[in-house]
Amino acid sequence: MKENRTTKKESFMQGVFTLMFSQVLIKILGLVYTLYLTNREGFGDKGNAVYASGYQIYALLLTISSIGVPNAISKLISERVAVGNHRGADKVFKIAFVTFAFVGFIGTVLLFCGAKIIAQKWLQIPDAEMTLVALSPAIFFVSISSVMRGYFNGRKTLKATAKAQIIEQVFKTMFTIIIVEIIAILTNTSTKLMAAGANIATTIATFTSFAYLFLYYKLKRSEIKGEISQTINYRKESVFKIVKNVLMVSIPMTISSVLSSINKNIDAFTVKRILSTYMTEEMAIQKYGMLSGKVETLINLPLSINIAFATALVPAIAAARAQNDMESATKRTSFSLLISMLIGLPCTVGMCIFSQNILNLLYPNANEGGGLLKIAAISIIFSILSQTINGALQGFGKVMVPAMALSVGVVVKFILNITLLKIPEINVYGAAFASAICYAIAFVITFIILKKNVKLNLKVTNFIIKPIIATTVMGVCSYSIFLYLKSIIIEKVAILISIVIATIIYGIMVILLKILTKEEMKMLPYGVKIYKILEKVGIY
Known about the structure:
- By secondary structure, the chain is mainly alpha-helical.
- Helix content is 85%, strand content 0%.
- The chain has helices at residues 2-39, 44-67, 69-82, 86-122, 129-154, 158-187, 191-229, 239-275, 281-322, 326-353, 355-362, 370-376, 379-395, 401-420, 429-453, 460-486, 491-512, 518-523, 527-536.
- The longest helix has 42 residues, at 281-322.
- It is globular and about 65 Å long.
């Protein structure tokens, strides 16, 4: 039993780090085309506003049609695979595929036909119409891809999902730059057409992701048939019952994603609309572009690293529960929360300290928004911890809790937006502050409920006090080094060196403070070797 549990731990962490690596690569590629667009003459913050406003509507419809699906399908598949019911898992996959192909098609039609009304009446940014039309086919491809990703996640073949996402982002980055550059040359830098071209690239990329997953499934079909032939514990389920089960699990998960998307759409609906009552329309659009383009991109970087835990936790905990192995489920949850804290806290502090310097480095042609990034960075720690908690709660079957918690946060966000944005001295900063409060509320609610239902192995010293000490030392040292370097070399080089040094200092502090226990250290990739070295030098 002990050996079996060790294997499971390694399998879980292998999946986590596979997804983590892919997400880091994806965000780096995403940053490449975002930097290109923001610094491209004729695009900038105004182009970001047109691009992002259309994209947020697309994201909302996409969320309704598919975003909760991967975790829902992976939960249902992993529960059946864990007890040997491969035939039942295959049946769930096929029925879910047909169901969400239909849902995705409806989403595509709605966005295509309603693009003009949405752009002119809802967003009050008429230039966004073409971006919505360009994005509409992507909803269908992402919907069916989501089912396939959930199927492979449930089978613990997370590499397929990771590769599909990397392929999608590679094509998106490549085609965004190519298409926008061609349009810029042909139209003398038309912002509206460049934004639409960037979103055409998104549609092409979603198709390539689906194509890869479909080919991978065909390649593995003979292996899957072999597993189906060895099925045990098969329980016959009607099509209606399977559809009902899929929807009962996916809808609560989707509600959480819908609320997260609504949270961003609150900004799309309110920021430009309210700011334009006391400043020019062009300035209001640029302010929204700063928030939705540069700031959101940077804030999402650390979230993308941590999402691997949330994704891997759902099938891992569901499978452990199906086998009545609550000890493994609890350990994985506690470990994932600790790592999320260790990721989120330094990212929050680092983004606050170096906010303007980061914008100067990445967006030399449009570097406004340092104060906005500083405020928005507060939400990172709460968002990261909420991601992990939500994955754990969904795995434990508490699928409605994240949705209910976030709904409270979204209501508060809406109230704060319409209150703070009306104050000229606060303007767009109010939206960033409201988002931080929203995620803080959602975190507090979900954490309290998780602790009531799961006996977490989290000590206050290791989970809160020591990470704060490590982050404080990192922040003080790295900023002092930056101030010194800035006086002798150019700022861009100084900030890069300071960030590298900050990472090293933080890693050393985590080790010296012994934040990770011996068992937790060994759960990391190459953790056994790292622990032996630390043991030899007398640290552990």
